[in-house]
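To: structure subgroup
Subject: Chain for Friday's discussion

All,

I'm putting the inputs and outputs inline so they're searchable in the archive.
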Amino acid sequence: MKAWILLLVAVFCPAQVIEFESGGLRYQTLTKNGVTIMFAHLHAKVREYSTMQVAVSNGSGQAVIVRPDDFVWETPDGKTMRPVPARKVVAEMLAKGGRGEVVGLVSAYETGIYGMTQLRTTSGYEARRRAALAEVNSTKLKAAAAASAIAFVQMKLAPGESTDGAMFYDTAGKPLPGGVLHVRAAGEMFDFQPSDPGTGK
């Protein structure tokens, strides 16, 4: 089944988690009260961080605030993990960033986001990338700018607006353990199905 059909199903079946593949990634998406959240595990890792691609679309009639800290990963043993603040990742990329590592992250992210032909966010990665990279020229600064553009940041989405970005979870260089993603947004709790980051299932 085409990804766009599954996205339409997600819109009209608001309480049901829908899974689909696109750009080599396995996505889960859930809609509640007109707000749609989707995510996929990225294969690329940045130093000690495992990464996740997230997109949020506000189809409701009111503004919605989305915060990285509201995306909680819970492992089967009940341990919870929150994303590392984007500023910390950017600071590390600025201090230690290597071109190869950044290129790998950017390539993995763009493969996923550009493969989603139905997803064109209004204030997501592409807009941030153009703004950030236009102002820098050194390798280390480009590394930091790329991490900054990719990182999911707190945002207030007006009706009809959408955004995307990467979440960075500190896993000490190990793969993100299997588990469930819980997201609090728009006064609702979005609970996704158990997922193994290694397979996306």
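Points worth raising on Friday:
The two ends are 17 Å apart (CA to CA).
The CA atoms of residues 180 and 194 lie 5 Å apart.

D.
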